[in-house]
Design a protein that fits this description.
InterPro entries: Band-7_stomatin-like, Band_7, Band_7/SPFH_dom_sf, Stomatin_HflK_fam. By secondary structure, this protein is α+β, with helices and mostly antiparallel strands. Among the domains are: about 60 residues, no CATH class; about 100 residues, Tetrahydropterin Synthase, Chain A (2-Layer Sandwich). Helices cover about 40% and strands about 20% of the residues. It has 9 helices and 10 strands. The strands form 4 sheets. The chain has a 3-stranded antiparallel sheet with strand order 3-2-5. The chain has a 3-stranded antiparallel sheet with strand order 6-7-8. Helix 3 packs across helix 5.
Length: about 375
C-alpha cells in the first residue's frame, strides 16, 4: 500500500516537472511574445522574462523589437531627364506593434524589402539626375514616406531611408567632368577680369596722383630699376619716355628735307648699276694733234671732198663719227661696275711744255665741206 502511494507521488512529481518544462518560456529584453491559443490571438502580449503557456494549446511567437538595418538591392532606372542610373539604398525600421507584425503580414521583413525596391524605382523616375546627386535629403524623405505608408498597417515603423550610391555610365561621367571643368574655367576668368578691373582703377588713381607731381614718375622709375637690379641680372632694361620720342619726331618733321649726296652710280630695279651717259663729242678733250694744229691723219689740206662724200647739192654734212673704243673694250668714261666714278684723263706735260691728256681717245672727224 505504501509502495503504491510512493509510486503515485513520484509519477505526479515527474508529470509536474514535464509540464513545467513544456510550459515554461523565456522572452528576452528586446523581444515581445505573442500567444496564439487554439489558433486565436491572445489579448495579452508576453513581456520580457519568464512566462508560462499551456502546452499543446498555446503557441508563443517571439517578435524582435530592435531596429533592423536592411540593404536595398541596386535598382536600374531612367531619370526624368532620360539618364540611365543604378541606385542602391539602405533602410532602417523596427516593429512597434508585435501582434500586427504577426497577424497582418506573413513576413514583414520581406514585405518591407519589396516595398523599398519598388519605391526606390518610383523615386528614380520622378527625379532628375541633379536631384539624385545634390538633393538627396529631399529624396530620402520622399522615399521614407512612400515606404512608411503601407508599413504602418504591418506594425512596422520606418525609421530612416538613405540612398547609398548612384552609379552613372562612363560617357555621362566624362560629360559631367567637362561641364565641371568649363564651369571652373568660367569662374576663374570672371575672377581674373574682376581683378583686372580693380587693378585698372587703382592704376588710374595712381596715374592721376603722379600727374600732379612729375618727380613722382622719376622716383617710380628709380624704384623699378632698383627692383630689377636686386635680382642679379646681367641685363638691365631702362624704359624710354614716349614723350621724348614724340618730341624728336616733331623736330624731324619741322626740319627741311636734305638731298642725299651721290656717292656712286645709281642702281636699277634689278640691283644692277645704271649706265652713265657719255659726254658729247664737242666736250671731249682735244688730242695732241689738234693742240698742235695739225690736220688729222688721212686728210690733206686743200683736198676737196669726193662725190661719194656729198649726198647732193646743198645736203648738210654728215654727222661726224668718232673712233671710240671697241664695244668689247671698256671705255674710261663708262661707269665702273663696282660703283666707282669714271676716270677722267689727267693732263701731263710733254716735251717743250706741251700738255697732253693721257688715256684720251683720238678721233678722226670727216673732212668738212
Amino acid at each position: 500500500m505504501v509502495e503504491d502511494v510512493v509510486i503515485a507521488a513520484v509519477a505526479a512529481v515527474s508529470g509536474c516537472a514535464v509540464y513545467a518544462m513544456a510550459a515554461a518560456r523565456v522572452v528576452k529584453q528586446y523581444e515581445r511574445g505573442v500567444v496564439l491559443r487554439l489558433g486565436r490571438l491572445h489579448h495579452q502580449v508576453r513581456a520580457p522574462g519568464f512566462t508560462m503557456i499551456v502546452p499543446g494549446i498555446d503557441r508563443l511567437r517571439k517578435v524582435n523589437m530592435q531596429i533592423v538595418t536592411m540593404p536595398v538591392p541596386a535598382q536600374d532606372g531612367i531619370t526624368r531627364d532620360n539618364v540611365t542610373v543604378r541606385v542602391d539604398a539602405v533602410i532602417y525600421f523596427k516593429v512597434v506593434d508585435a501582434p500586427s507584425a504577426v497577424i497582418e503580414v506573413e513576413d514583414y521583413r520581406f514585405a518591407v524589402s519589396q516595398m523599398a525596391q519598388t519605391s526606390l524605382r518610383s523615386i528614380i523616375g520622378k527625379s532628375d539626375l541633379d536631384d539624385l546627386l545634390s538633393n538627396r535629403e529631399k529624396l530620402n524623405q520622399g522615399l521614407e514616406l512612400m515606404i512608411d505608408s503601407p508599413a504602418v498597417g504591418w506594425g512596422v515603423q520606418i525609421d530612416r531611408v538613405e540612398i547609398k550610391d548612384v552609379s552613372l555610365p562612363e560617357t555621362m561621367k566624362r560629360s559631367m567632368a567637362r561641364q565641371a571643368e568649363a564651369d571652373r574655367e568660367r569662374r576663374a576668368r570672371v575672377i581674373n577680369a574682376d581683378a583686372e578691373l580693380q587693378a585698372s582703377k587703382k592704376l588710374a588713381q595712381a596715374a592721376q596722383e603722379m600727374s600732379s607731381q612729375p618727380a613722382a614718375l622719376q622716383l617710380r622709375l628709380l624704384q623699378t630699376v632698383v627692383a630689377v637690379a636686386a635680382e642679379k641680372n646681367s641685363t638691365l632694361v631702362l624704359p624710354f619716355p614716349v614723350e621724348l620720342l614724340r618730341f624728336l619726331e616733331r623736330a624731324h618733321q619741322d626740319s627741311p628735307p636734305q638731298v642725299p649726296a651721290e656717292t656712286g652710280p645709281s642702281r636699277g630695279a634689278a640691283g644692277q648699276p645704271e649706265r652713265m651717259e657719255k659726254p658729247p663729242f664737242d666736250e671731249r678733250p682735244p688730242t695732241r694733234a689738234q693742240q698742235r694744229g695739225e690736220p688729222p691723219e688721212g686728210d690733206l689740206p686743200g683736198e676737196e671732198p669726193s662725190g661719194e662724200e656729198l649726198s647732193g647739192e646743198g645736203a648738210p654734212p654728215e654727222e661726224p663719227q668718232r673712233a671710240g673704243p671697241s664695244p668689247y673694250e671698256p671705255s674710261p668714261y663708262d661707269p665702273s661696275p663696282y660703283g666707282d666714278e669714271p676716270k677722267r684723263p689727267e693732263p701731263s706735260h710733254g716735251p717743250e711744255g706741251e700738255q697732253s691728256y693721257s688715256g684720251a681717245h683720238t678721233t678722226k672727224p670727216l673732212t668738212p665741206h
